[in-house]
Amino acid sequence: MKIYRLPALSDNYIFLLHDPNQKIAAVVDPAEVRPVTEKLESLGAQLVAIFNTHHHSDHVGANQKLIQKFPQLTVYAGVEDRGRIPGQKVFLQEGDRVQFSDREGEILFVPGHTSGHIAYYFPPLVAGEPGELFCGDTLFAGGCGRLFEGTPAQMVQSLSKLRNLPDRTRIWCAHEYTLKNLQFAITVDEQNLDLQARLAEVKAARSRNEATVPSMIGVEKCTNPFLRWDQPNLQLAVKSQDPVQTFARLRGKKDQF
């Protein structure tokens, strides 16, 4: 399974999964049609599945047109999003499995950004190789999603599931927000040497217009304040030792940043 990152809209990423042997593809959160169809044409692949993480328009905007072009494809999304995902045929919940190519993905229920948000985790086929996480707007490189429909407690629980994945899991998050996320992170975790180094690297990468996605779980655990709510320095920064309250105060600060 090969993964292609397709820029869309102003700062979205669409992810195309490709099986070159079977000449089939699946797409995660198609915001726009053209990047998907152009890549499919260049690969000579048939689209067989859409994997949606949640119902926001910048994640499902191309569903209907892709269904029109590839009427046999199957649209997967969370059971809690029933009626909100265009063309949805499969209604997934925690622990369900999806198959693409030679990989089996596990469904994680990760509400917080929205009430029905799910993530797709594909464990590695070979020990030591990276797994693949498609987490929509729950976890970002250096940050996390805003709480539009969920609570801080739900988001802490959701992020805990992702934090517990192997360190070598690649994070295919849906937006290029990394630089701004890290610019906020340094304001609440300024003594973090790993964060200082990462911010410098990301500044340099973005100055060259390079993408910062995917990230890795191990990197996020060291530098992302929204996976570090139990660290004393961050608790001190927001004057709370309660994990949920610490997260909520960090999220509140980020919302005003």
Automatic annotation (TrEMBL):
Its cofactor is Zn(2+). One of its GO terms (molecular function) is hydroxyacylglutathione hydrolase activity. Pathway: Secondary metabolite metabolism; methylglyoxal degradation; (R)-lactate from methylglyoxal: step 2/2. Residues 11-175 form the Metallo-beta-lactamase domain. It catalyses: an S-(2-hydroxyacyl)glutathione + H2O = a 2-hydroxy carboxylate + glutathione + H(+). The keyword Zinc applies. It comes from the Bacteria. SMART domains: Lactamase_B (SM00849). Keywords: Hydrolase, Metal-binding, Zinc. Zn(2+) 1 binds at residues 54, 56, 113, 137. Monomer. Belongs to the metallo-beta-lactamase superfamily. Glyoxalase II family. Thiolesterase that catalyzes the hydrolysis of S-D-lactoyl-glutathione to form glutathione and D-lactic acid. This is Hydroxyacylglutathione hydrolase. It comes from Okeania hirsuta. The gene is gloB.
